[in-house]
Design a protein that fits this description.
This protein is of the alpha+beta class. The chain has four helices and five strands. It comes from Dipteronia dyeriana.
C-alpha cells in the first residue's frame, strides 16, 4: 500500500483504528540528516508500551490508572525515494486488549477533532468573556449533544 504523504498514511491508519475500535499515536520516525526529510515512521496502537516510571510519583494521592497494555499493533511506513511515496513495510494486526464499541469510537483521543469553525467560535467566546465550559455547552447544544462535537471539553483548552 502506498501513500503520497506521511499525513495521509496517518489518516488511513487512524480511520482503520476508528473502524476497529482503537486509538493510534505516532511513535518513532527516521529522518534524513542532510535534508531533514522524514524517511520512515511507525504508527502504533495508543496502548503500546508502558508509561515511563517517572510519571508515577509515589506521593500522588489518586494516581491515574495505567492505560497501556504493551499492545504490539502497528503500521510502519518507509519513503521510496524513486517513487517519492511512502509504503507500508511492516504491519502488525494483533491487539492484546478489547476494542472500544463502535458507538464510542468518537471519544478515542486520536479521533478528537475540532473543526476550524468550532475553533473560531471557542476563541470568540473566550474573547467575549464566556468561559470554556459555557462555550463547550453552547456548541454541544447547537449540534445536538456534546457527544456529537467530536472533541472533549479539555481539548478546547488547547485553543486558548
Amino acid at each position: 500500500m502506498e501513500f503520497e504523504t506521511e499525513q495521509l498514511a496517518y489518516e488511513f491508519y487512524n480511520m482503520y483504528g476508528r473502524r476497529m475500535g482503537f486509538s493510534i499515536r505516532n511513535d518513532t520516525f527516521g529522518k534524513n540528516r542532510r535534508t531533514g526529510e522524514i524517511t520512515s515512521r511507525i504508527f502504533v496502537c495508543s496502548k503500546e508500551g508502558f508509561r515511563r516510571k517517572d510519571k508515577r510519583d509515589v506521593l500522588t494521592r489518586n494516581p491515574r490508572l495505567e492505560t497501556r497494555t504493551d499492545c504490539g499493533a502497528q503500521m510502519s511506513i518507509k519513503l521510496d525515494r524513486k517513487k517519492n511515496k511512502f509504503y507500508v513495510y511492516h504491519f502488525v494486526e494483533m491487539h492484546n486488549h478489547p476494542f472500544v464499541r463502535q458507538e464510542c469510537t468518537h471519544m478515542l483521543p486520536s479521533q478528537w477533532k475540532i473543526s476550524a469553525s468550532q475553533a473560531i467560535e471557542v476563541n470568540l467566546a473566550e474573547e467575549s468573556g464566556i468561559s470554556l465550559k459555557a462555550s463547550y455547552e453552547l456548541l454541544g447544544r447547537r449540534v445536538g449533544g456534546r457527544e456529537s462535537l467530536g472533541y472533549k471539553k479539555a481539548r478546547s483548552k488547547e485553543l486558548s
